[in-house]
Amino acid sequence: MSFDVISAWLDLNSKLLLNATGETLYMVAVAGIVGFAIGIPLGVVLHITKKGGLMENTAFNSVLGAIVNVGRSVPFLVLMVAIIPVTKLIVGSFIGTTAAIVPLTIGAIPFVARLIEGALIEVPSGLVEAAQSMGATPLQIITKVLLPEALPTILNSVTITLVTLVSYSAMAGTVGGGGLGDVAIRYGFHRYDLTIMAVTVVMLIVLVQIIQSVGDALVKKVDHR
After folding, report:
1. Residue 192, φ and ψ in degrees, nearest 5
2. Which DSSP symbol is given to 95?
3. Could you tell me which residues come within 8 angstroms of residue 165 by beta carbon, excluding any fewer than 6 positions away?
4. When you count CB atoms within 10 A of the terminal residue's CB, does the N or C end of the chain come out lower?
5. Residues contacting residue 115 through CB under 8 Å, at least 6 positions apart
């Protein structure tokens, strides 16, 4: 492929790819923010209500854990189809970038919850017992001991979730969700344009690498163990 051909191809497709990248970032950012806002407290509740937890309630923990497990076990493509009525109720449509955020968020919440629960389990029980012996309330223990001590693992969980959301957003593109996945399907697959297919794959890889690198740097910065 000559330089002139490459230049012409870029002029023709650069705007399409930039818009698709923006849509992917938009989906991942919004779904991530809402998913973390709900999933992190949910993970904390799962941890503190388990047997031997700060606020032990095994019956509640079992029910909540079962709901989270169901949410995690449903494949994302199936989830998107299954909650079409919910998506239409919330955003008025089940097609498009904004509509894709609904299943992305619902898929992220149980995923985040289990990761956060696992992160909190790694906090030494001796630290919690020491805080209890000094009269700290459960809320104080959560905010002053559990979350700060688990912060490196939590940040790593955030990184894993964002990377997963990038792959989910690409799957959302297969059913009209927008983003790089949509470009790969509509222009790369349906129009047999192998070049644009390859470019979208590379852009997704680069996006994942950037997220992973930033996440690793943040974990390294806050991990003083």
Report:
1. 55, 40
2. S
3. 27, 28, 31, 32, 35, 104, 108
4. C
5. 39, 43, 157, 160, 161
Residue 132, amino acid: Q
CA distances from 134 to 28, 185, 188 (A): 42, 59, 62
Q: Please write down the HEC assignment for all residues of 29-72.
A: HHHHHHHHHHHHHHHHHHHHCCCCCCCCCHHHHHHHHHHHHHHH
Predicted TM-score (pTM) of the model is 0.87
* Residue boundaries of the structural domains of the chain: 3-222
Q: What sections of 122-175 are H helices per DSSP?
A: 125-133, 138-141, 147-149, 151-172
Task: Provide the residue-wise pLDDT of the chain in tens; the chain has 225 residues.
Answer: 455 544 545 555 677 788 888 999 999 999 999 999 999 999 999 999 998 888 889 999 999 999 999 988 888 888 888 888 888 888 888 888 888 899 999 999 999 999 999 999 988 888 888 988 888 888 999 999 999 999 999 999 999 999 999 988 888 877 677 788 888 887 777 667 777 888 888 889 999 999 999 999 999 988 766
CB atoms within 10 A of CB 69: 11
Q: How many helices (DSSP H) and strands (DSSP E) are in the chain?
A: 11, 0
Q: What angle (nearest 5°) sits at the alpha carbon of residue 48, between those of residues 45 and 140?
A: 95
121-133 burial by CB neighbour count: b if 16+ within 10 A, else e? eebeeeebeebee
What gap in Å lies between CA 207 and CA 177, rounded to an integer? Answer: 18
